[in-house]
Write the structure tokens for this entry.
Amino acid sequence: MSKFLITKRSQNRVTGPIMVTTSPRKTCPSACPFRKTSDSDQAGLCYAEHGMLGGFLWTKLDDLLVGGSFQNGAIKVHSLEELCNSIRSLPKGTIWRHNQAGDLPTKDGETIDVAELDCLVAANDNKQGFTYTHFDVINNENNCEAVKSANDNGFTINLSANDLEHADQLSETNAGPVTVVVPASQTMNTLTPNGVKVVVCPARVRENVTCATCRLCARQRDFVIGFPALGRNQHKLKAANDNA
Ligand code: SF4
């Protein structure tokens, strides 16, 4: 059964005080090279593996069942139905982020569970939900269609690229807007090899900007958002982007 954490008002400096959710590690697709268990040389690069989120919250969610709780009952593990009820209860136009960690619903780590994704898309009606995915939308037609359909119906799913060249490949699918991890030193806007503009996440380079005020990731866009790498494995990105 799918399970989630729901943080009604995030204290994360980047997101600002919006609702954010967390999905278990097993939702992270095999296509993601940043997974801790990936056999790529970028394994463990995922930003969510660091700090309180990676070191505590995410693991608690992995270990508990729906209905379980921790922190003396303050943090509960929710079902998909409970998550959809929380989304529906948000005021019209509210921005919220799905998955500060984890990815879209799946049963096998390869293909998105369309029925469960459709529940989220329907619950998001009149809201500004956004998320990111590392599911393969280039070689997996089902994933491409599922993500495109969600984007066409108001739930913004950003395609997460591993480097600038990959960002160009994802842009060509037209399944959704694209984001990319760039080296930690990349704080100025740049271009992909195909000449698509990459705007560095404003919250990472300016004071007093959060997702709550910026909202770029909740928009359908023709430019890419770049996230400077975080954490102790950030050096692993440099070579990939230097070669793009
Ligand atoms: S670009 Fe804007 S919406 Fe996206 S993560 Fe950065 S601050 Fe949030």
Observations:
- Residues 238-244 have pLDDT under 50 and may be disordered.
- Residues 5-242 form one domain.
